C-alpha cells in the first residue's frame, strides 16, 4: 500500500474513532436525546477532530510502522490524545466559557483505548497469525541478561525471522520464576537437555557475550546432549559498531571452544613500530603471512611488500589489500623465491624495509620427513638468505615465524625451524638489526592444519582419522598467531624467542568430537578411526625446553625464552656440505644438531648447579 493511501485510511479511521468516543461519552453521561442536536456538540467534535489530526502529525502517528509497535508508540498515542483533549478544553472555555470535564475525561479514555487498540491489533495479528503460517523453529535463549532479552525482543518484533522464542535458561538465582518480555525462565544451564526435550526446542542461541572460553565449553557440552542446533550471538562491540546486526546469529565454531582468552595487544607500541614504515612480509600468500599482512595494514605503513613464491596466492592477497587500502599507502606484490639469494638481496637493496616478518617456510611435518633436503633449502637456507640480506641492508627488526616443533625436535620440520632460530640468534650478534623468533602451536584453519582435513572427512561421511587417542597439541587461531608475531616485533630488543602462554593443550580426539557435533552429527554417525603416530610426530608439543624456560613475562601472556646458541658450528658444517649429502644423511645430521644443542645446554646447567 502506498504512503498516500495509508495516510487517508488512518485519517478516516481516527476521525471515526474521535466521533465515536464523544458520542459514547455523551450517552454514558447524559441520556437526553436533545444534547446530540446542539451546536456545541458539533463544534466540539469539529475542534477535537482538528486538534487530533494536528497532534497525530506532530507525534508522527501516521508515520509509524505499527506492525512493530511497542511502549514508545503507546506513549506517543497518549501524548497526542491528551494534548488534543486539553486544546479542546481551552477552546470550549474560550468560546463558550464552559466545558464538561466528565464528558471529555471519558472521551479521553475511549480515545486512547480505540486508537491504541486499532494500532496494536495489527501487531497482534502479525505476531500471532501471520507468523504461525510460517514453519517456525522453537528457540531457547541461554542467558537472560541484556543481550538475551535484546535478542528475544528482536525475534518477537521481527516478522522475517522463522524463530519463535520459548524461554530462557540462566544460572542467576535472582532470575528464577521471572518473565522477560513475556517469556519465562525455564531453568538452569545444567537442565538444558530436559528443557529442550520437554519444550520441543529446535534452536539454542547462546547469548552471554561475557562468557570465557571455558564457560562456553561447559554450555556447549550441555547443548550437544540435545539434537537442537546451537548458535551464538555476535559480539556486542560488533553490533554497536555496525559490523553485524543483532540477527547475525552464527553456528558455534571450533575457535570459540578453545580454552584460552585472546591476547590483548599494546596498540600504541605497535603503531610506533609500523606506522609510516616500509614492511616486508615473506610468505605473504600463506595462511599466516596473509593475515600478518592484513593486520600490518591496519597500522598504516608507508609501504607493504608482499613477497611469495606462489603467483596466485600473492595475487589474491594483493587484490584484497588494494580493495581496502589502495589510496592509503603503497602495496607492492613481489614474486620471489627465498632460496634465490641474489633475488632476495635485490629486493632488500631496492626497497630498504624497516621491518621484516619472515613467514615463508615448509611446515607440513610428514611431508618434510620424506623430503628433508627441500625442508633445509626453504627453512634453513631460505631463512639464511632473508636474514643476512636484512642485516646487510640495515633492517631495524627481523621477526622469524617459528614453531613449537622447534623444541626438542624429533622431526625434520622442527629441526629446520630450530636451525633457523640458531641462524638469526647468531646474526643478532653480528648486525645492528634486532632479530627475534616467535613460537606458537598449531594454527586452526591454516593450510595443512587438521581442521580442513576433519571437515572434508565429515562431508564424506566419515570416519575422522586421528593418529592416537592421547595425542595433544596447542592450538590458536590465525589472527591470534599473527597478532603475536606483530607484537613480538614491537617488543624486540634482539635475540629473544617469544612464546605465547597458550593455556592447556587440547586433545586431538576432543577436537574431532567437537567438530563432529558442530557439524550436526553424532560421534556414532561419523566415527573416529585411530591410524597410529606418523613419522616424526610427537605425542605432545612443548613451547620451551627446560634449558630455555624463563619466568620472565615480558607482556601479558607473552613469555620470553633464554637464547640457546649451541650447535651453530655443526649447522655451518651441514650447510657447507649440504649438496654432497643424501637425504638420509641430511636428516641424521639435522637431528644430531638439535641433540648437540640440548646436551651442551644440560652440561652447562649441571656445571652451574
From TrEMBL:
Claim: Membrane is one of the keywords in the record: yes
Residue span, Polysaccharide biosynthesis protein CapD-like domain: 279-560
Superkingdom of the organism of origin: Bacteria
Stored Pfam families: CoA_binding_3, Polysacc_synt_2
SUPFAM superfamilies: NAD(P)-binding Rossmann-fold domains (SSF51735)
Name recorded for this polypeptide: Polysaccharide biosynthesis protein
Gene3D superfamilies for this protein: NAD(P)-binding Rossmann-like Domain
UniProt key word Transmembrane: yes
Family per record: Belongs to the polysaccharide synthase family.
Membrane spanning residue stretches: 7-29, 41-62, 74-95, 101-118, 139-156
Naturally occurring in which organism (per UniProt): Neobacillus citreus
InterPro entries membership: NAD(P)-bd_dom_sf, Polysac_CapD-like, Polysaccharide_Synthase-Rel
CDD domains for the chain: UDP_invert_4-6DH_SDR_e
Key words of the record: Membrane, Transmembrane, Transmembrane helix
Amino acid at each position: 500500500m502506498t504512503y498516500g493511501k495509508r495516510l487517508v485510511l488512518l485519517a478516516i479511521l481516527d476521525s471515526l474513532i474521535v466521533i465515536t468516543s464523544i458520542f459514547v461519552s455523551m450517552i454514558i453521561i447524559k441520556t437526553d436525546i436533545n444534547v446530540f442536536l446542539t451546536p456545541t456538540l458539533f463544534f466540539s467534535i469539529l475542534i477535537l477532530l482538528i486538534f487530533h489530526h494536528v497532534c497525530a502529525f506532530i507525534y508522527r502517528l501516521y508515520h509509524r510502522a505499527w506492525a512493530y509497535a511497542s511502549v514508545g508508540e503507546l506513549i506517543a498515542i497518549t501524548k497526542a490524545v491528551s494534548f488534543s483533549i486539553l486544546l479542546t478544553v481551552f477552546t470550549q472555555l474560550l468560546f463558550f466559557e464552559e466545558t464538561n470535564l466528565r464528558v471529555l475525561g471519558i472521551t479521553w479514555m475511549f480515545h486512547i483505548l480505540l486508537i491504541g487498540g486499532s494500532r496494536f491489533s495489527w501487531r497482534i495479528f502479525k505476531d500471532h497469525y501471520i507468523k504461525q503460517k510460517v514453519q517456525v523453529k522453537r528457540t531457547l535463549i541461554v542467558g537472560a541478561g541484556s543481550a538475551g532479552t535484546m535478542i528475544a525482543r528482536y525475534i518477537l518484533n521481527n516478522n522475517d525471522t522463522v524463530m519463535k522464542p520459548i524461554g530462557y535458561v540462566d544460572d542467576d538465582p535472582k532470575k528464577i520464576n521471572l518473565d522477560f518480555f513475556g517469556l519465562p525462565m525455564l531453568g538452569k544451564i545444567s537442565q538444558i537437555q530436559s528443557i529442550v526435550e520437554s519444550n520441543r526446542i529446535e534452536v539454542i542461541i547462546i547469548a552471554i557475550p561475557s562468557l570465557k572460553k571455558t564457560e562456553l565449553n561447559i554450555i556447549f557440552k550441555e547443548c550437544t546432549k540435545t539434537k537442537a542446533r546451537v548458535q551464538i550471538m555476535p559480539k556486542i562491540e560488533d553490533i554497536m559498531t555496525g559490523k553485524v546486526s543483532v540477527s547475525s546469529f552464527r553456528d558455534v565454531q571450533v575457535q570459540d571452544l578453545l580454552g584460552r582468552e585472546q591476547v590483548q595487544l599494546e596498540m600504541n607500541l605497535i603503531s610506533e613500530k609500523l606506522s609510516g614504515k616500509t614492511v616486508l612480509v615473506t610468505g605473504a600468500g600463506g595462511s599466516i603471512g596473509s593475515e600478518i599482512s592484513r593486520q600490518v595494514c591496519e597500522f598504516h605503513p608507508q609501504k607493504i611488500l608482499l613477497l611469495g613464491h606462489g603467483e596466485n596466492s600473492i595475487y589474491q592477497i594483493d587484490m584484497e589489500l588494494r580493495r581496502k587500502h589502495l589510496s592509503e599507502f603503497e602495496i607492492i606484490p613481489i614474486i620471489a623465491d627465498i632460496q634465490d639469494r641474489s633475488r632476495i638481496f635485490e629486493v632488500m637493496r631496492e626497497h630498504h624495509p624497516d621491518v621484516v616478518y619472515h613467514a615463508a617456510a615448509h611446515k607440513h611435518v610428514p611431508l618434510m620427513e620424506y623430503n628433508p633436503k627441500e625442508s633445509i633449502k626453504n627453512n634453513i637456507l631460505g631463512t639464511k638468505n632473508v636474514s643476512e640480506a636484512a642485516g646487510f641492508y640495515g633492517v631495524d627488526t627481523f621477526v622469524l615465524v617459528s614453531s613449537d616443533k622447534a623444541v626438542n625436535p624429533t622431526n625434520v620440520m622442527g629441526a629446520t625451524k630450530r636451525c633457523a632460530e640458531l641462524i638469526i640468534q647468531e646474526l643478532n650478534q653480528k648486525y645492528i638489526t634486532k632479530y627475534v623468533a616467535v613460537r606458537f602451536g598449531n594454527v586452526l584453519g591454516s593450510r595443512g592444519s587438521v581442521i580442513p582435513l576433519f571437515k572434508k572427512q565429515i562431508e564424506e561421511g566419515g570416519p575422522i582419522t586421528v593418529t592416537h587417542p592421547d595425542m595433544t597439541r596447542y592450538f590458536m587461531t590465525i589472527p591470534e598467531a599473527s597478532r603475536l608475531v606483530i607484537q613480538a616485533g614491537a617488543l624486540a630488543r634482539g635475540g629473544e624467542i617469544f612464546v605465547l602462554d597458550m593455556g592447556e593443550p587440547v586433545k586431538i580426539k576432543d577436537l574431532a568430537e567437537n567438530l563432529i557435533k558442530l557439524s550436526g552429527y553424532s560421534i556414532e554417525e561419523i566415527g573416529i578411526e585411530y591410524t597410529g603416530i606418523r613419522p616424526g610426530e610427537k605425542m605432545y608439543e612443548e613451547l620451551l625446553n627446560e634449558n630455555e624456560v624463563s619466568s620472565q613475562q615480558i607482556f601479558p601472556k607473552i613469555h620470553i625464552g633464554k637464547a640457546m646458541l649451541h650447535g651453530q658450528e655443526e649447522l655451518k658444517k651441514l650447510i657447507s656440505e649440504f649438496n654432497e649429502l643424501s637425504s638420509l644423511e641430511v636428516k641424521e645430521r639435522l637431528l644430531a644438531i638439535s641433540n648437540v644443542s640440548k646436551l651442551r645446554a644440560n652440561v652447562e646447567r649441571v656445571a652451574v648447579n
